[in-house]
Design goal:
The structure holds two protein chains of two kinds. Chain A is mainly alpha-helical. Chain A is 73% helix and 3% strand. The interface between A and B is large, with 51 and 49 residues.
């Protein structure tokens, strides 16, 4: 009993939430591309660029707000590359994503080495992190206090964004257009919606979210940049979207489950279980879930066969 | 026939060449921005890749695993299954090669094929679940294989750290394999080994498989248009699974070759991404098995050249890796360099630039423009 309560306690939940946030943020952006029928492999690279830009601008200016802005901006820029080649110039969308990831991994390393003459990682007291928020009254409540208060500002932003994305996707004309293009590009075209433009917009939105998710990793979770620090979270975000059946709330639930799994694996690792098996848990869980979800074939039609932009072409 | 050859050359040589030149130009610009001399960097790179016997040998050595991994990727890609899991098959295949190479003691003519076969078996087995899930349930293979790579790498990392650790070594590595499982090195003192011939053999085998057998026909049909293949009587899911098995087997081989030819043991995290590099090589060659031999050599030259440039100039080698991504973008973008798609389109472009006589606009080239229907 003591053993169990050592593992399963409030600290685990809090750690799980914090690990879930970058997955949630990237996942919320990826929802748009998924709804627009684009398989967005490139989130990994967009996040890495966001993480880099956040640290770089924070280091240079000392302003975390400018840093967050830069992260979103650079995420957008990465999305432009992805959209340009994946949507406009019709690379295979998976190839465009893989290419972006390769580019992000190599180019951030290049920048690290040619600007800072260091390799591996960049940490410096001059890097300003995202501030944490202490909620005034809730902070004092015994159980809810540590659960809800004292997180990074971006944690709260992420939760608010779940509602915003839900509203945007299901209650605004642009959201409807995105979903329409994903559902049936030809039908959307017949009522005067240009599928390629809408898809490009979806890619841009996912870029902004991914940039923010990257900045969370480098400025809220760590306050440093590490080579390839995203390490698969972009893909896990993609899996979280599938797991959440392509809805904002479902993605939130999925991200929290993945976050808890990883927190649990870290906890078990400190107790002497072979670390490699623990580190595997999030990946194994994700793959198993993905296969089971596909098996149940309960996913909406557009999630099943990645025909990508084919439908959206002339 | 000459038209067909011209088309082939335009598509498969001019486009990659243009892509490489464009990427190098972008690279030169970036080098200039960082206040270095691009010409010096590129000439160092060229020397580093081909400058003398040792440099050339290193290029060849570096090309071997990448080329084999590329061939593995190409089979799956040709069938329309985007197997990104070559890296995982490679790690597990390498470990299987260590197991058979270390635990069995046989004469070399039996030991080498057995070790290779074990790695292929394990590599194929690793590719089976995502392949099956893709073919039968339409579970997205890109995501599953990417995530399974992490699992494979972590699993071998565990095996090296605990059950099979060489306690006499400081790093995480296994004891050595028996010399009877070594792939012979034939260009002493360099480490170029018989894996080079293996790569060529696999390429020829794949070309034969894809273009001369009915399974190859099924694989290509499935990749081109699964609904049509289904209609034409091809068992699409089964073909996809078979392509994945072959792909994984070749991926395992790529790992085994590294263990048997270079390392002589399994080392934790020994691959700097050969599997991913293989994917890039395959894309660069548009999945053509014989083209992959060229692209693999190019990739090996790029890596050794970039490493040499890194040591001798102030330009980090990562720049070249970024440029590979740029090249991939340019090579695979159907809407870019559209004039290098067919001889009609090319002539049309020349007409537009008034290099060839005649009026532009009516030529067959329009068919290949970016507004091409699909």
């Amino acid at each position: 009993m003591g053993f169990l309560s050592n593992i399963l306690n409030l600290g685990l939940v809090v750690a799980g939430i914090r690990i879930a946030i970058p997955i949630l943020l990237a996942g919320l952006g990826g929802l748009f591309t998924l709804q627009a029928n684009i398989l967005n492999i490139g989130m990994e690279g967009m996040m890495l660029f966001g993480a880099w830009a956040g640290v770089f601008v924070s280091y240079m200016t000392g302003s975390v707000w400018l840093a967050l802005l830069a992260a979103v901006g650079v995420g957008l820029l990465a999305a432009v590359i992805f959209g340009l080649f994946g949507v406009r110039y019709r690379c295979n969308i998976i190839v465009a994503g893989m290419g972006l990831n390769l580019f992000a991994g190599a180019f951030t390393m290049y920048l690290l080495r040619s600007i800072f003459r260091t390799r591996g990682s960049l940490s410096d007291p001059r890097i300003v992190g995202v501030p944490t928020l202490t909620l005034p009254v809730i902070d004092k409540i015994p159980f809810l206090g540590p659960l809800l208060s004292g997180h990074s500002l971006l944690v709260y932003v992420a939760f608010v964004l779940v509602a915003v994305v839900h509203y945007f996707l299901y209650r605004t004309p642009t959201g409807l257009r995105i979903r329409a293009v994903g559902e049936h590009a030809e039908a959307a075209r017949s009522v005067g919606v240009d599928p390629a433009r809408v898809q490009f917009l979806a890619v841009l939105i996912s870029g902004a979210f991914s940039g923010l998710a990257g900045a969370y990793l480098s400025l809220a979770q760590l306050r440093m940049f590490v080579e390839n620090m995203v390490s698969g979270r972009g893909f896990i975000a993609l899996a979280a979207i599938y797991f959440g059946r392509g809805t904002p709330v479902g993605t939130l639930v999925a991200a929290l489950i993945f976050g808890l799994a990883e927190a649990l694996s870290m906890r078990l690792q400190t107790l002497g279980f072979p670390s490699q098996f623990m580190l595997m848990i999030p990946y194994v869980v994700t793959v198993a879930v993905l296969i089971v979800v596909s098996r149940l074939a309960a996913v909406p039609r557009r999630l099943k066969l990645p025909s990508f932009t084919e439908e959206a072409r002339e | 026939m000459p038209k067909k050859i011209a088309d082939f050359l335009l598509r498969n040589l001019l486009r990659p060449l243009l892509a490489i030149l464009a990427a190098l130009a972008i690279g030169a610009f970036i080098i200039l921005l960082s206040q270095q001399n691009p010409l010096e960097a590129y000439s160092k790179m060229l020397f580093g890749a081909f400058g003398n016997f040792y440099r050339l040998a290193e290029t060849l050595e570096r090309s071997i695993p990448v080329t084999i991994a590329g061939l593995g990727a190409a089979v799956a890609f040709t069938s329309g299954v985007f197997n990104v899991g070559i890296e995982g098959s490679l790690y597990l295949g390498a470990f299987a090669a260590f197991l058979v190479g270390n635990k069995l003691s046989l004469p070399a003519p039996i030991h080498i094929p057995m070790t290779l076969a074990a790695s292929m078996l394990v590599g194929a087995a690793w590719a089976f679940p995502p392949g099956y899930a893709r073919a039968r349930y339409k579970a997205d293979e890109t995501v599953t294989t990417i995530l399974l790579n992490y699992v494979a790498i972590l699993f071998t990392s565990y095996l090296v750290a605990i059950p099979f650790k060489d306690l006499t070594a400081g790093t995480q590595q296994t004891p050595p394999i028996h010399p009877t499982a070594y792939l012979p090195r034939f260009l002493p003192p360099s480490r170029v080994h018989a894996g080079l011939f293996l790569a060529i053999a696999v390429a020829i085998f794949l070309y034969w498989l894809l273009h001369r057998t009915s399974l190859g026909y099924d694989i290509r049909m499935t990749g081109l248009n699964p609904s049509f293949a289904e209609y034409a009587g091809v068992d699409v899911p089964r073909t996809m699974i078979r392509a994945m098995l072959i792909s994984g087997a070749i991926g395992g081989l790529a790992g085994a070759v590294q263990v048997m030819g270079i390392l002589y043991r399994f080392i934790d995290g020994f691959s700097p991404g050969y599997g991913f590099d293989g994917i890039m090589v395959s894309l660069l060659a548009r999945n053509h098995p014989l083209g992959i031999l060229l692209a693999g050599l190019f990739y090996g030259a790029l890596q050794t050249g970039a490493a040499y440039m890194d040591r001798t100039t102030a330009v980090p080698k990562e720049l070249l890796t970024s440029l590979v991504a740029v090249i991939i973008f340019f090579v695979t973008a159907e809407g870019l360099f559209a004039f290098a798609q067919s001889s009609e389109a090319f002539r049309e472009k020349l007409r537009r630039w008034h290099i060839l006589p005649g009026k532009s606009g009516k030529g067959g080239g329009e068919r290949w423009d970016s507004s091409q229907t699909s």
